[in-house]
Amino acid sequence: MESVELIKLILIPLVAALIGWATNWVAIKMLFHPKKPVVVLGITFQGVFHRRQKELAVRLGGIIEERLFSHDDIHQKLTSPAFIGRLTPILEKHLDLFLKERLVGLHPMLALVPAALIESFREKMMAEFETFLPHLMEGASEALEDLIQVKEVIREKIEAFEVEQLEEMLFSIMKNEFKMIEWVGGVLGFLIGLFQVGITLL
After folding, report:
1. Which of 132, 157, 158, 198 has the most CB within a 10 Å radius?
2. Where are the alpha helices (H) located in 52-80, listed in sequence order?
3. 162 contacts: CB under 8 Å, gap ≥ 6
4. 76-106: per-residue pLDDT in tens?
5. What residue intervals traverse the membrane (predicted)?
6. When comparing pLDDT for 200 and 196, which is higher?
7. Of 177, 175, 158, nearest to 166 (Cα)?
8. pTM of the predicted protein model
9. d(CA 178, CA 185)
10. CB-count exposure of residue 20 (10 Å: 0-12, 13-18, 19+)
11. pLDDT band at 74 (very low <50, low <70, confident <90, very high)
12. Are 200 and 193 in contact (CB under 8 A)?
């Protein structure tokens, strides 16, 4: 085998590896670049996220509301005994503050009310609060459902999100994974090149 032919056979897998690596590198870059539409031979090129940001926002909003964070999730949290249990001490604290410090300010004669009567009133109010809170949270959950559409909130946030920030965030998180994709392209290209060499030698 002549040296020129040998060099060609060696170059085939190397060039194929370079093409495989470059192809994946370009594919990753085209997620965000070019930022503005570029027309080449009548074909328009633009970064996937720039071109389809609104569509992605709508789809992600629907998916997140359907599968990750829905009004049912909000309802369950607001009406859960654990959440209501955390509200009870807050109400109790404010009721104590009102009875001890602000009640007298409503009318001087209220200072003459026996402490036992005030304590009895406090206990009845807390019992009423504990009965009323679950209904209050049910109403709050329904009001939130009317006022806030989860998918619309997410859609608006994604549409308003700067693509440059998204690119920076995504690459900072997945830098190693993107590098791996590039190298996989190179390795596959190299293997395909070897396969071509094998066919040539048959």
Report:
1. 158
2. 53-63, 71-78
3. none
4. 888 888 888 888 888 888 888 887 777 766 6
5. 6-27, 180-199
6. 196
7. 158
8. 0.57
9. 11
10. buried
11. confident
12. no
Neighbour-count burial of 155, counting CB atoms closer than 10 A to its CB (0-12 exposed, 13-18 middle, 19+ buried)? buried
What residue ranges do the domains of the chain occupy?
Answer: 3-30+49-201
SS3 readout for 125-162: HHHHHHHHHHHHHHHHHHHHHHHCCHHHHHHHHHHHCC
Decide if pLDDT at 1 tops 60.
no
Contacts of 88 (CB under 8 A, 6+ apart): 126, 129, 130, 133
Query: What is the secondary structure of 78-137 as a DSSP string?
Result: HTSHHHHHHHHHHHHHHHHHIIIIIHHHH-GGGGGS-HHHHHHHHHHHHHHHHHHHHHHH
Interatomic CA distance for residues 76 and 74, integer angstroms = 6
What is the token pair recorded at 193? Answer: 């090149």
Long-range contacts of 88-92 (CB under 8 A, 24+ apart): 88/126, 88/129, 88/130, 88/133, 91/126, 91/129, 91/133, 92/126, 92/129
Residue 52: how many CA atoms within 13 Å on its side-chain side?
Answer: 11
How far apart, in whole angstroms, are the C-alpha atoms of residue 139 and residue 137? Answer: 5
Which residue did the predictor score with more confidence, 116 or 180? 180
Whether 38 contacts 45, CB under 8 Å: yes
